[in-house]
Design a protein that fits this description.
about 50% helix; about 5% strand; two-stranded antiparallel ribbon; binds calcium ion; elongated; mainly alpha
Length: about 140
């Protein structure tokens, strides 16, 4: 569950008014760190570069982690029974809902999850070669 927070944080940042000029404006070091962390985690084969396929796979894994009852949607029913785990789930769920629940029905489907996020990958892949290298990752100054 801890792993979900970087990607959610990065996405929240990227679609916020502050984040619209992600690479030209002055994003906070924290936001940049989250994005870099997410892209590093998404380097699933560990070759130092993150391809779009790897990012998509990483995102699918994130969805699967949140969809604990595996019914294809993230909603309140996925909240853990254990209080400690529940406390971690709740804020992540609220954030996920605020970003991805485009029809505002309190549930996030895989379709909504895949559809309504900004294209972070395109923003980061500055030389458009289809992979994001470490050098292309934003680094907090
Ligand atoms: Ca890779
Ligand atoms: Ca579910
Ligand atoms: Ca929805």
């Amino acid at each position: 569950m801890n792993k979900i927070l970087p990607i959610v944080g990065a996405l929240a940042f990227a679609i916020s008014p502050m984040g619209t000029g992600i690479l030209s404006a002055q994003p906070s070091p924290e936001a940049l760190g989250k994005i870099a962390e997410m892209m590093t985690e998404a380097d699933l084969n560990g070759d130092g570069k993150t391809s779009r396929a790897e990012l998509n796979q990483h995102r699918a894994q994130m969805f699967a982690k949140l969809d604990r009852n595996e019914d294809g949607t993230i909603d309140r029913r996925d909240s853990p029974k254990i209080p400690l785990a529940k406390r971690k789930f709740e804020p992540a769920f609220e954030q996920v809902k605020s970003i991805f629940d485009s029809n505002e029905d309190g549930r996030v489907t895989l379709d909504e999850w895949n559809r309504s996020d900004p294209d972070i990958f395109a923003m980061l892949d500055r030389n458009e070669d289809g992979v994001v290298t470490r050098a292309e990752l934003p680094s907090p100054k």
